[in-house]
Specification:
20% strand, Pantoate--beta-alanine Ligase, Chain: A,domain 2, alpha/beta, binds adenosine monophosphate, Rossmann fold, three-stranded antiparallel beta sheet, 280 residues
């Protein structure tokens, strides 16, 4: 497994592989790898000849009061897990090389970046879209894999690829959960045992919502109220949003039309967790 830190070396490696007719698959991450990331890597391994993993905690997608400095980092553990998934190259750039002095060009996917997490994290998706476009230009993948855990991010990237005619196929991947339902996230490491217990209300509320739909509920307001009540029961959860929306436009649904995206963001202590499901 090769570890590449230099942007130029990464690009030259990718160009050489492409010239040999090799198919490059790519999984961009911020590290602190868990089974969710590994599911993307295992699928990526199957889809191409050369598998690239990038680890980059992207400063431009963090707000001034967010956890950029404290974001979990586990370089040794990440390399071990990457090796286990037969990654060919770990691209591990430095922030000063991705954003050199004078950097001033950003990508803004206007509509899809506004609701949900975009409303509480202004500039977040502008940072995400910009770094993903840069990584695509450097790694030059044929296929890139993204998790549905970050559903809005996936939609923003798909839109950017379409709008800017990028020659990359985007492969969405299902959410990987712990046995008890908690969606895997690098930020779960911040949770105390009590917080982690409280966090189970998130996935529980998603399952209860599907049950309501199965039993014939068609009023979005009632579903949202049930989810809010389930989350608030724990006392430890502060809701950022609970939304039922059109999974393509991310606009709020006034009447239930399936499949519908049920998306949740909340804070447990200082830890921000998101989860979602498609109600069918
Ligand atoms: P991150 O390191 O949080 O930026 O995530 C890197 C990629 O892994 C993104 O495409 C995420 O959507 C994906 N991912 C993170 N957690 C999960 C999960 N629990 N299941 C599936 N994919 C995930």
């Amino acid at each position: 497994m090769k570890i590449i830190e230099s942007v130029q070396e990464m690009r030259e490696w990718a160009l050489a592989k492409r010239a040999q007719g090799q198919k490059i698959t790519f999984v961009p991450t911020m590290g602190a790898l868990h089974e969710g990331h590994l599911s993307l890597l295992r699928e990526g391994r199957k889809l191409g000849d050369q598998l690239v993993l990038s680890i980059f905690v992207n400063p431009t997608q963090f707000g001034p009061n967010e956890d950029l400095e404290k974001y979990p980092r586990d370089h040794e553990g990440d390399l071990k897990k990457a090796k286990g998934c037969k990654v060919d190259v770990v691209f591990y750039p430095k922030a000063k090389d991705i954003y050199p002095e004078g950097f001033q060009t950003f990508v803004n996917v206007e509509g899809l970046s506004k609701p949900l997490c975009g409303a509480s994290r202004p500039g977040h998706f502008r940072g995400v879209a910009t770094v993903v476009l840069k990584l695509f230009n450097i790694v030059q993948p044929h296929v890139a894999l993204f998790g549905e855990k970050d559903f809005q991010q996936l939609k923003v990237i798909q839109r950017m690829v379409k709008d800017l005619d990028l020659p990359v196929e985007i492969k969405p991947m299902p959410i990987v959960r712990e046995d008890d339902g908690l969606a895997m996230s690098s930020r779960n490491r911040y949770l105390s045992p009590e917080d982690r217990q409280a966090a189970l209300a998130i996935s529980l509320s998603l399952s209860k919502a599907q049950l309501m739909v199965d039993q014939g509920e068609t009023n979005p307001k009632k579903i949202i109220e049930m989810v809010q009540a389930t989350l608030e029961e724990t006392k430890k959860i502060k809701i950022d949003y609970v939304k039922l929306c059109n999974p393509e436009t991310l606009e709020d649904l006034k009447t239930l039309k399936l499949p519908a995206l049920l998306a949740i963001a909340c804070l447990i202590g200082k830890t921000r967790l998101i989860d979602n499901c498609l109600l069918r």
